[in-house]
Design a protein that fits this description.
Number of domains: 1
Distance between the termini: 14 Å
Number of helices: 7
Order of helices and strands: HHHHHHH
Largest sheet: none
Number of strands: 0
Shape: globular
Strand content: under 5%
Length: 114
């Protein structure tokens, strides 16, 4: 599950030095999750259960925005530090269905979580 508060905290140093693109990059990948987050919060089931029940189609936008390949493809180099920090944090903290695929659409998944 995205941890927008933690990602917002990682944006603070970038904001303090006036690096606004990287500050946005710290939170931008999770924008694709907003629809799923609404579904989770409206459900009476535990978040982990709702996440595991999401169709693969509902996770594709999230996978795309968490793919290092997307950011390279579009050449958004002014946001790379923020996005990279976001994806690295997610690699270590997301398990189960949300295990990160940092090179999506390639199916390799990050396996080393905390």
């Amino acid at each position: 599950m995205p941890h927008i508060a933690i990602h917002s905290l990682t944006a603070l140093p970038f904001l303090m030095i006036g690096d606004y693109p990287n500050a946005v990059g710290c939170i931008a990948p999770d924008v694709a999750w907003i629809g799923n987050e609404i579904t989770i919060r409206r459900s009476k089931k535990p978040a982990s259960e709702v996440i595991e029940s999401l169709s693969e189609l509902r996770t594709v936008p999230y996978r795309i925005t968490h793919s290092i390949l997307l950011w390279i493809l579009f050449g958004w180099s002014d946001m790379w530090l923020g996005v990279g920090l976001h994806v690295i944090l997610d690699c270590f903290t997301h398990k189960g269905r949300m295990t990160q695929q940092p090179f999506y659409p390639f199916p390799w998944r990050w396996r080393w979580t905390l």
